[in-house]
Amino acid sequence: MVIDPLLTVLKTPIAPREVGSTVGWGDVGRRIGEVLPGDYMKFIELYGTGTIGGWLTARGKSRAGQSCVFVAGSSLPKFRVFPSNTRSFRRLDPATNPRRLAARDFHHGLLRILNAFASNPHQNLLVAGFRSLAGLRAIKRQLPDEVPFPLFYEPDGLLPWGISIDSDIFCWSTRGLSGHWTVVIIGRHTGNEEFAMPMTQFLFEALAGKLNSRCIPRDIEATFAS
Questions:
Q1: How far out from the chain centre does Cα 224 lie?
Q2: DSSP 86
Q3: In terms of pTM, does the model score above 0.70?
Q4: Distance between CA atoms of 79 and 174, rounded to whole angstroms?
Q5: Which pLDDT value is given to residue 66?
Q6: Which residues, including other chains, have CB under 8 Å from residue 103's CB and lie 6 or more apart?
Q7: What is the dihedral of CA 37, 110, 12, 28, to 10 degrees?
């Protein structure tokens, strides 16, 4: 199956949430007007609702007194420190940051996969996905060069399946049968990118460090948080 390589790098949850059913997928297909890709449906069956790439974030002050967001993942040898007014970062050795992480700190996923069965509207394909489409339509009306693609329900239109922590929108290009849909990223700050591969192959190559993308860091953690 197309999803098999992904299973070698991304561990499935013991008890995935909101995995749907055969009847449920039929209802989703009727509501959207398309049968969704088989690898996506298998992904939801095995992983359920959740996010890919774990990051622990904590707001605090740098040694210079600057407001920062400290971001750490288990694959990172040092904290990353993002000044609150810029997207750039510098490295900070944890030994120089004695502040302890507390309950007010938060765990985030880098990429939220939209699930057609999610009870949380921010994670639901039919809610968050179509809200993202509405936002893209508004941008396209004002700045057509920013979104130079047709949008669902237009022929071959983009249909969102994921949203990053930076609000990059990960979409299918719905050209042809759903088994042949490919990936398009509408980057909030990084421009648009196209990948001639299905969703789960894209995720595998990203997590295996084989993907050259401006939106996906090379050191993304191969973790899934439900």
A1: 11
A2: -
A3: yes
A4: 39
A5: 58
A6: none
A7: -30
